[in-house]
Amino acid sequence: MTETAILAEELRKTFDEVVAVDHISLAVPRGTVLGLLGANGAGKTTMVRMLTTVTPPTAGRGVVNGFDVHEHPQAVRRSIGLAGQYAAVDENLTGRENLFLVGRLNHMSKSDARSRATALLDQFRLSDAGDRPVRTYSGGMRRRLDLGAALVSQPPVLFLDEPTTGLDPASRLDLWEVIETLVADGTTVLLTTQYLEEADRLADNIVVIDKGRVAAEGTAKQLKARLGDTVIEFEFAKAATAEEAAVVLGTTTTASTVVRTVMADGPTTLRDALNRLDSHGIVPAHVALREPTLDDVFLALTGANGAAQ
User: Are 43 and 21 in contact (CB under 8 A)?
Assistant: First the structure.
């Protein structure tokens, strides 16, 4: 079995005159997480739909778990789990009944489907709620159940299309831990996300998509290093002091009392900047030195106004 679990070669998708995906290539090694990062409309979900056989590509080739998505769609579907942006579970059934139904649809025997449902309820910490109607579940519980449903057949490859959209921070962290456990057990994951911190934490490799094309690819560390800078922020008690400091440092204020400078050598720049401020009798109330974040990278690559959406 190939070591590349997911492969896209020059995939392209058009809808009439609209180019949704424009010759995107990527490869996901088995047992890793690829994060697809991009703004709404960038082409992330279209990529997932092509690789999961939901929609055919206009051009190019996709291979999942060794099967061509065009030539062997049924084999691809048997190899994957798919969880979208919204939980695709029946509100009127219990959690256990939902998982049992998925098992039966995957041609499991009744006894195997029941045991698998019980195991998944336990794995996703839903045992206590397993016999309650899903309509009584919180948003986080529904998303965990939806992910469980995608794993009933124990697929080696999992596609997660913005799985934590709309979840509160605690539920998001909870789902992240579940995904990390799955990957540790050998599952390959392609994850689309609108949360930069999610890609930073979960993805072994990140592909940034902008307007249907690959804008950049690499690990989070590599993408941040592309900016080659360290951000230093000085905060002052008064706006007038911040303005004076900005003149001394040859930069501008980013807020009424904050001065930010971006340099290649952070520690040396920080020392020199503090010495220059001291020579003018200016003392900052707070100093912060940080590496560029994925937010900085995303803005630099796409020119988007704010974080990925």
Answer: yes
Neighbouring C-beta atoms of residue 296, cutoff 10 Å: 18
Which residues does residue 208 pair with via DSSP β-bridges, in sequence order?
A: 37, 216
d(CA 277, CA 56): 61
Cα–Cα distance for residue pair 37/216, rounded to 1 Å: 10
Residue with tokens 């001065």: 259
Q: Name all domains of the chain by residue range, CATH numbers in brackets.
A: 4-225 (3.40.50.300), 229-291 (3.30.70)
Torsion of CA 113, 115, 118, 122, to 10 degrees: -120
Do 191 and 163 contact (CB within 8 A), yes or no? yes
- 304 token code pair: 């988007």
256-298 residue pLDDT tens: 898 877 666 667 778 888 999 999 999 999 998 777 677 767 7
Residue 94 tokens read as: 């219990």
Could you tell me where the DSSP H helices lie in the chain? Answer: 44-51, 73-79, 95-105, 110-123, 139-150, 169-184, 196-202, 220-227, 239-249, 266-279, 294-302
Neighbours of 155 (CB within 10 A): 20
Beta bridge partners of 258: 235, 255
Q: Please, which residues bridge with residue 38 across strands?
A: none
CB atoms within 10 A of CB 123: 16
Residue-wise pLDDT tens digits, 6-63 = 999 999 999 999 999 999 999 999 999 999 998 888 899 999 999 999 999 999 999 9
Do residues 219 and 205 lie in contact, with contact meaning Cβ atoms separated by under 8 Å? yes
